[in-house]
Specification:
The complex is a heterodimer of chains A (467) and B (202). Chain A contains 17 helices and 19 strands. Chain A is an alpha/beta fold. The chains are: A alpha/beta (467), B alpha/beta (202).
Chain lengths: 467, 202
């Protein structure tokens, strides 16, 4: 172990199987998650007659195409085929699969942590860019493409060039109604959607330490939207408390020894980062996106930018984004009418997200339709035990099953062309939620506020007098 | 995949920033097997009106034989879908020139013989101006490490390992399997040092 190592360095060093030239290394992969989209990789494996090297370290999930509003048998033939293919591929290779009949089913980045499969100090891969979520535990976790998925399946290793390290420090106390989603969108808006390319980001500072594991997962989840290879938070008591009693996490004496080990993973006090960025948590307001990239975001109290006032190289894109989004330059973003809302996804589909939306919706009616899709069946059950489902339904929203749902629209949950959706998801790309759909990313509380008022609105006044 | 060293082709400008992988291939096409070919899905919703008719002036429609794309920053950001690269490759694109690329996209590109050529913003801006809406001849030489386009020669910034993969069409699986013994010994010491890395039994 080198001196002055960062959290990233320490976890990286533990996983180097072969050190190549120019920072290239063959890394051991501790956990590999596959889903419906992994069909290309299984096909590559089959074409070469290869077996999965470590089925016990590989886990299958059904999430991207999971129907949320009816049985699989009622879904399209394409969707049924995608779901059955991952079930068949995992079965054929002896891989445990959290399928639609499994009470542990849910979005991969929700159930990995929930089942205790995600642990500090691990390397974790999945053919999904939001794999960065798992870094919240102090793991190196990143998304990979189908060729790399096939490689990990066949060898349980992956070739990587070592990224640079960037630390984003957020000190200060977040204001009421402000959370991890706002922290993430703030730095992406400030630095740009490609700012962290080629970097592993470590989040530090008191505002990060104060976050729950759910909040840290939201923060790390969105690292990819700032271009980062991965996002990480050093494991601490909050992490260990979350892991105690999780099904697949170590227990008893094994857990004590693991915690002792994990406690040494934090970046050394004198570790040097290639890039340092600091934000003041107290200055972060609820954020909402106005354009078609996560970097096109602003505080809810601000106005839609006027392309003519932007630097020249940003004008063309801004005009195009505003045209697609149907927004008028210079008008306050607050007050923009929305047609529907969506609460869910690997970004904001956890119990804490549902609680914060329910805190706004309790005793109120939504003016627009919307769906609430819990991030996993376990989250769904817990929410029902807490009565959150009744709050959502009393408000007029639909309470549906778990999956990626309207974040990516693969399962048929889409937003119609021209419709404006306030969404707790991660991408406001053109057509992401459906062709021509207009997506505004924001926190679960902000989406609930948009539901109640029928327009983009500051959640903070709606929280006054509520716990 | 087969390797390549030189490519002589036709370049067009796609002067857009943040061309994300959802633009490169909308999610609804991704359940198709690769054998069907992904070329017709490339940038589908930018190239077609909502009624499905092609937009004639879109660069890839006016120059369907283009094999080099010049694009704005953060090309291929977003989802890890390798299908975005399949769509480009199946459409005949061999090189994308842009100021920056999504990390996962760039790795996927190399794995499929597509060169993600990072070129300074100023140069890309000059290429946009030089190309306009026309197609121009372009040549890419991986061995010499140069791109010739619109009367300029641009030096390629390409890590040795990535260049070698493109040139040799190497498959990492074979390369890695040659390290099988090292991997096996790493595995056993890794599990011994930190037994907790293995998932607990239910």
């Amino acid at each position: 172990m080198s001196v002055q190592a960062t959290l990233f360095d320490k976890v990286w060093d533990r996983h180097v199987v072969v050190a190549g030239a120019n920072g290239w290394a063959l890394l051991w992969v501790d956990r590999h998650f596959v889903h419906e989209g992994s069909h290309h990789a299984f096909a590559k494996l089959a074409s070469r007659g290869l077996k999965v090297a470590e089925p016990d370290l590989t886990f299958g999930v059904v999430d991207h195409y999971a129907p949320t509003q009816g049985p699989l048998s009622a879904a399209s033939a394409d969707i049924q085929r995608m779901v059955r293919t991952v079930e068949e591929n995992t079965r054929a290779h002896g891989i445990e699969c959290f399928d639609l009949d499994d009470p542990r089913q849910g979005i991969v980045h929700v159930i990995g942590p929930e089942q205790g499969l995600t642990l500090p100090g691990l390397t974790i891969n999945c053919g999904d860019s939001h794999t960065s979520t798992h870094g919240a535990f102090g793991a190196i976790a990143f998304g990979i493409g189908a060729t790399e998925v096939a490689h990990v399946l066949a060898t349980q290793t992956i070739w990587q060039s070592k990224p640079k390290c960037m630390r984003i420090t957020i000190d200060g106390k977040l204001g009421p109604g402000v959370g991890a989603k706002d922290m993430a969108l703030s730095w992406i808006a400030k630095l740009g959607a490609d700012a962290a390319q080629g970097h592993a980001v470590e989040y530090a500072g008191s505002a990060v330490r104060d976050l729950t594991m759910e909040g840290r997962m939201t923060l790390c989840n969105l690292s990819i939207e700032g271009g980062a290879r991965c996002g990480m938070v050093a494991p601490d008591e909050t992490t260990f408390a979350y892991l105690r009693g999780r099904s697949r996490a170590p227990k008893g004496e094994a857990l004590s020894r693991a915690i002792e080990d994990w406690s040494r993973l934090a970046s050394d006090a004198d570790a040097v980062f290639d890039r340092e960025v600091a934000l003041d948590g107290a200055e972060i307001a609820p954020i909402v996106t106005w354009g078609t990239s996560p970097e096109e975001a602003l505080p809810v109290t601000a106005s839609v930018p006027d392309p003519e006032r932007l630097p020249e190289h940003k004008r063309f894109r801004a005009r195009e984004a505003l045209d697609y989004m149907g927004l008028v330059p210079g008008r306050p973003i607050s007050g923009t009418p929305v047609d529907q809302v969506f609460i869910g996804s690997c970004t904001n589909g956890r119990i804490e997200d549902l609680r914060s939306a329910a805190a706004v919706l309790s005793g109120r009616r939504a003016k627009v339709p919307g769906i609430v899709s819990p991030g996993s069946q376990s989250v769904k059950l817990q929410a029902e035990q807490e009565g959150l489902d009744r709050i959502f339904m009393a408000a007029g929203l639909e309470w549906v099953s778990s999956g990626c749902s309207m974040c990516v629209g693969m399962n048929g949950d889409t937003v119609a062309a021209g419709q404006r959706c306030a969404s707790t998801t991660n991408r406001n790309f053109k057509g992401r939620q459906g062709r021509g759909a207009r997506t505004h990313l924001m926190s679960p509380g902000m989406v609930a506020a948009a539901a109640v008022t029928g327009e983009i609105t500051d959640v903070r006044p709606l929280l006054e007098g509520r716990s | 995949m087969s390797g390549w060293t030189r490519h002589e082709g036709v370049a067009v400008a796609l002067p857009l920033e943040n061309v994300d992988t959802d633009q490169l291939i909308p999610a609804r096409f991704m359940s198709a097997p690769r054998s069907q070919g992904y070329g017709s899905y490339l940038l589908h919703d930018l190239r077609h009106r909502s009624d499905g008719t092609p937009i004639a002036e879109f660069p890839l429609n006016s120059h369907p034989r283009a094999s080099v794309l010049v694009a704005g920053r953060n090309f291929g950001c977003g989802s890890s879908r390798e299908a975005a690269v399949y769509a480009l490759v199946d459409h005949g694109i061999r090189t994308v020139i842009a100021p920056s690329f999504g990390d996962i996209f760039a790795a996927n590109a190399i794995n499929n013989g597509l060169l993600p050529a990072r070129v300074d913003t100023e140069v890309v801006e000059e290429l946009f101006a030089a190309l306009g809406v026309e197609a121009v001849k372009a040549s890419v030489d991986l061995v010499a490490g140069t791109i010739r386009i619109a009367g300029r020669e641009i030096a390629l910034e390409l890590e040795e390992e990535k260049g070698a993969k493109l040139i040799n069409g190497w498959d990492d699986i074979d390369l890695t399997r040659s390290h099988a013994q090292v991997i096996a010994s790493f595995r056993s010491s890794h599990f011994q040092r930190a037994p907790w890395v293995r998932p607990a039994d239910i």
